[in-house]
Amino acid sequence: MSATAAGWLQVALLVLALAALHRPLGDWMARIYTSDEHWRVERIAYRAVGVDADSDQRWPSYLRAVLAFSAVGVLLLYGLQRLQSLLPMNNGMAAVEPGSAWNTAISFVTNTNWQGYSGESTMGHLVQMAGLAVQNFTSAAVGLAVMAALVRGFARRGTDRLGNAWVDITRSISRLLLPLAVLATVVLVLGGVVQNLASGTDVSALAGGTQFLPGGPVASQEAIKELGTNGGGFYNANSAHPFEGPTAWISLFQVFLILLVPFSLPRTFGRMVGDRRQGLAILGVMATLATVSLVLVSVFQARAGGAATQLAGGALEGQEVRFGGPLSALFGAATTLTSTGAVNSMHDSYTPAGGMVTLFNMMLGEVAPGGVGSGLYGMLVLAVVAVFVSGLMVGRTPEYLGKKLGRREMTLASLYILTTPAIVLIGTAVAMSTDAGRSSMLNDGPHGLTEVLYAFTSAGNNNGSAFTGLSANTPFYNVALGLAMVFGRFLPIVLVVALAGRLAAQGKAPVTAGTFPTHRPLFAGLLTAVVLVVVGLTYFPVLALGPLAEGLS
Amino acid sequence: MTAPVLDRPGSPAGAPAPRRPTIEWGPALVGAVRKLDPRGLVRQPVVFTVWVGSVFSTVLVLTDPSVFGWLITAWLWLTVLFANAAEAVAEGRGKAQAASLRKARTTTVATMLDGREVAAADLRPGDEVVVVAGQVIPGDGDVVEGIASVDESAVTGESAPVIRESGGDRSAVTGGTTVLSDRIVVRITSKPGETFVDRMIALVEGASRQKTPNEVALNILLSSLTVVFVIAVVTLQPFAIYSGAEQSITVLIALIVCLIPTTIGALLSAIGIAGMDRLVQRNVLAMSGRAVEAAGDVNTLLLDKTGTITLGNRQAASFTPVGDATVADVAEAARLASLADETPEGRSIVVLARDGHGLRERADLPGAEFVPFTAQTRMSGVDLPGGRTLRKGATGAVLAWVRSLDGPVPPQVPEIVDGISAAGGTPLLLAEATGARARVLGVIELKDVVKPGMRERFDELRRMGIRTIMITGDNERTARAIAAEAGVDDVLAEATPEDKLALIAREQEGGRLVAMTGDGTNDAPALAQADVGVAMNTGTSAAKEAGNMVDLDSDPTKLIEIVAIGKQLLITRGSLTTFSIANDLAKYFAILPAMFAGVFPGLDTLNVMRLSSPESAILSAVVFNALIIVALVPLALRGVKYVPGSASQMLQRNLLVYGVGGVVLPFIGIKAIDLLVSLIPGIA
What we know:
Largest interface: A-B, 65 and 78 residues
Shape of chain B: elongated
Number of helices of chain B: 24
Distance between the termini of chain B: 59 Å
Radius of gyration of chain B: 34 Å
Number of strands of chain A: 6
Oligomer: heterodimer
Structural class of chain A: mainly alpha
Number of domains of chain A: 2
Number of strands of chain B: 22
Shape of chain A: globular
Largest sheet of chain B: 7 strands, mixed
């Protein structure tokens, strides 16, 4: 079988698995966010923290809970890293220096998992397990909670209550992420991913000399790294490392884990608003964008110019030969489409066009299907914009799911679509116009620009993957990318929760023949176009000077 | 009076305006220059951004002159001017109407009840003034004494005089109208400066125009897009410097102006003003733009049966004989009994006898004595010489008359009468008496005639998602029958004002928007409660105060047109927004290669239009961007064509025209302009 055929078979297998599982999982998640019952273990947690789990919060209170929870997460993670040398299970690692510790703390709390450090030589087992892995769960849970609030905003009517943030966060972990992560860990261990508490072993290499192979609780961290669309690897080489991604099967399984929750959430959305077709339309948009992106990356990689590349069957530089071109392309597309940022190949080595697609995937705002929770809420805000324009075109005050989109709703949605591009472009511009920014660049020309642009796009959209080719562990980048991650995560969250509050307070306009149906292919097509146009128009100039200039030369 | 649309079956609700407006560009350009004041422009963020860019570019070109710089700067200013002109054109059309209204307002003296004369401007609500034939009514008010014919053409444009009388629903008079006959006493209801005519003037001039909710929301989205594009272009400079292709500020400003949604930004307020103007042209005054937008959102339409759905007078439809009488007997007798009956019903009986049974319409009946209808007898008829008497009237009354003359009551009478009632008609019993013996001859069926084309109209509304409810004082059975014939969705029978109010509240509870028309004082609460309340100009002051629109033609069917105008307003905004953003693609393909192909020759692949030179490409994009505003002014004023249909059909059509068209057109336009611009020395 040719590599290409094998590649498409892998995709087919993946699609089948997702198609089979998105319904039960989506339904299950809908129950998580609508059920009145508390599990005993959850009650214990609520009592320990002193939370009234039965209270229903107004949007400012919901927002405060989410922000405070994240702020505490940053402090804890920062503290753990700074005190590493004094704590047990540090595997002899020193305290992480302040700039890197702040950057990493922000990075993991914002679900970005940008890694300016090298895991195996910086973080001991305690920080990995009690710090980074914990944030892998909680940051994903925060995204899911915010999503639940927004969906409730659409589903509820005439109320100022959005649910309880503490309950949503807790349940996301106890009922979804933890059980799934345990299952996934077992599969990963069976597939050859290491899972131990050893600090590593010295082995004699074939060519003479010895090599140190660090071990650790890799599989358990790997599971939530993919499931929670986190992406921060145990090892610096991430999923390309043989201990983190030992086989092609495991690599494919990791792609499956990355896509599982985000692609199931539209179903949850449809369930919660009481119209599954609405979820299906959103799923259609996500799937279309993802498919087009995957095809483009695959084609650009396989059709790379040059005699050597053609002989090799595609651009293989920077890619694991164990996985080959198609699986690398699949992983690359999946990880950038979902705000995960895990890698099994180096995007920096992709063809200019292939690399541009991974960059463009992130520029979409991580909505196709995006990070857990954040992908859906981002897509819903874009749907609000699409409905607004199309609603006007059918001669009515635009309404989405019976909610009228007036001045306040549009203010919040407009600011949302403005925020991330502003962060990315201003960040990149500052880096390119300062010595501190330019001195970290390892390449010049359009490719160098692309690397810096990629870093800020990744941070601003909370993806976390790196194009590499940039020495990012410098004070400038630690601070600048840290700020990009904070603003890129929490400004949208503020806007989304406020929007949820506005929507919930509204009644529900009845559906009539004059209502523009938002579950038909026409709307799905329009939403896809809006996503592409808004992103395309915003980033076209900078893409022209980066990957386009490189690719067309 | 404009012809009621309902009489033209099948005509789309958004049919072209009654008079085709012309665009007065001359005065508009003067207005446009006046509007260059930035304090006014701040209200339009997109245009204001272009203004700032133009100022910058002017300063730059003054310090470093070049042909290219001057041309770009000139066209940037033209962009601002065109945007201002669009607004000025829209405003200008209201000015003429306002001028004629002002004339009406300059009434000077009012005569108080006690004979004092005071200036009209000093009248206070509650003052009572006397107006006699030939005088102008000094202010809005209600007639409290007398009856007069009034010429309201100054306000409505309708020259036929109307009757205004004290009491009842025809008591309201408008300041500025002229009393033609008789004498009336008017109690003033408006404060000085706040009369109906004052409000009208403010409205048509656009002075009191406030942005409507949808307009505000759209402005926010456009502002946000403007900020995104400004950031995208401003941050481009560091990247360009890094790439060794530093751009002149003029080029960056040109790029910003091309990318931000100038087309819709420039036309937005013109669209709003023109929407109000379209209403004014149809003789409807909206008290707020909000009401016009709400009209587009209406889910439920409450329509009065009489005059709106039916012609309003019952007409004879058939004669049914009873007993041994024949149809011809009944027709003959009915005709005789109605020859002198000048009510519409009576006339229709004569007409039916003539058309259906060949009986002459006019005949002299020497010695006949006509018995007119009275509320006591509830019968009318004729006493012929020779002792034959004929009576027609309400079933109960005629039967009583027959019984009083010892006549028999045929058993089939109740059956026929009930059958007619059930079908929505009104039965009139016809009886005769010769000598002392009376007998029932037959039954005349009167029917309320549904206006032609109504069913199609309601079907159309249903496709638009609007439910119609017929309001009538008839009983449930009659109402249902007419509803079925006219094709309305629901009826409210034996409706009292309280019932109407309750119905509106019930509809609104489900989140629906309700529109209704009314004229009486007892309609006022319902008019106020409805989201769109259209008061008839012939109605009472209370009704006009309560509603948020006034129809000067007092045509209840106008509501359907108002809905169409509201929708058209939103569709025009949405379509031009889509068009504006779709335009950006071509502009990128023009400008980006022009900026960077020098450093990265590969980027010339993006120059798909094969524009002649970088300068020409940028200038062509700017020129296109400015000219498209002018080209679209007529569309903004007229409104995008509105064909009622389902939301999906409408969206599909508008996306195709304004979305796909918006992508394609600028490629052609910019290329065409480039062919001309490249002839300019120093550009090619």
